[in-house]
Design goal:
The complex is a heterodimer. Chain A is α/β, with parallel strands linked by helices. Chain A is about 25% helix and about 20% strand. Chain A has four helices and five strands. A five-stranded parallel beta sheet of chain A has the order 4-3-2-1-5. Chain A starts with 6 loop residues before the first helix and ends with a strand. By secondary structure, chain B is of the alpha/beta class. Chain B is globular. The chains are: A alpha/beta, B alpha/beta. The interface between A and B is medium-sized, with 15 and 14 residues.
């Protein structure tokens, strides 16, 4: 990094936030979103990864009215505004669940299993939900 | 050093171990803790899968979690190294980062 970098750049780490749970059965998905938004507020470089049942978090047209719980899925649309660097979804996890990219609420990078493995090595901090 | 992966769920209940094995790279270490240790028993559904994993990864089990579940070391798949809490810490600090499969 050049010496001209701002102090915030020098203090930022690369976070990988790994989401492997469906959205409404547990509190994990919502907690993960809050952590992601907090990390970006502190100018950290964040990649959000959706694996296994985590891909269900991004499915369009979720309606929780009858459940009486908050539908937080529109919040994923704000990830770009919060300057999350990258949203990644695993191809195999989508395929196994019969989900296509068109079913997702935001545009994402779809990566294959072996490319996902690389993410665990290229980030400083791994957070699991 | 490569990654240390930890698995803390029974493979019969959750896919934490399956996901770990899909994404861990050769040479990584995998530490089985809590209900994750149920994957390590010989003569069960996951025996073959874990035996194959033993050729690609270093496998460890947290002994207090085996003891708590009544799993004697002789029932474990060959090649699994036992660690105590001190060993858990040693593994964590001797690897670059820890990936916790929950």
């Amino acid at each position: 990094m050049s010496t001209g970098g701002s102090s915030s750049e020098q203090n930022s780490k690369r976070f990988l936030c790994v989401n492997r749970r469906a959205p409404h059965g547990t509190i994990y998905a919502l907690e993960s979103l809050e952590v992601v938004l907090a990390a970006t507020a502190f100018e950290q470089r964040v990649t959000v990864l959706f694996l296994d049942d985590g891909v269900f978090q991004l499915v369009k047209n979720q309606n929780t009215d009858a459940l009486g719980v908050k539908n937080f899925s529109p919040t994923y649309k704000a990830l770009e505004m919060y300057e999350v660097e990258r949203v990644v979804v695993e191809r195999e996890s989508l395929d196994r669940r019969g989900i296509s990219e068109d079913d997702l609420i935001i545009p994402v990078d779809v990566l294959a299993e072996d490319e996902i493995s690389e993410l665990f090595e290229s980030h400083d901090i791994l957070l699991n939900f | 050093m490569a990654l240390l992966h930890t698995v803390n769920k029974s493979p019969f209940e959750r896919n934490a171990l399956d996901s770990c094995l899909r994404h861990a790279r050769k040479g990584s270490a995998i530490l089985f803790i809590e209900d994750g240790v149920y994957a390590l028993v010989q003569g069960a559904e996951y025996t073959d899968k874990v035996e194959q994993a033993a050729s690609r990864f270093s496998l460890y089990a947290l002994e207090p979690d085996l003891d708590a579940r009544g799993i004697p070391p002789e029932r474990l798949i060959d090649g699994v190294q036992l660690v105590d809490y001190h060993g858990f810490v040693e593994l964590a600090v001797s690897h670059d980062r820890v990936q916790s499969w929950l």
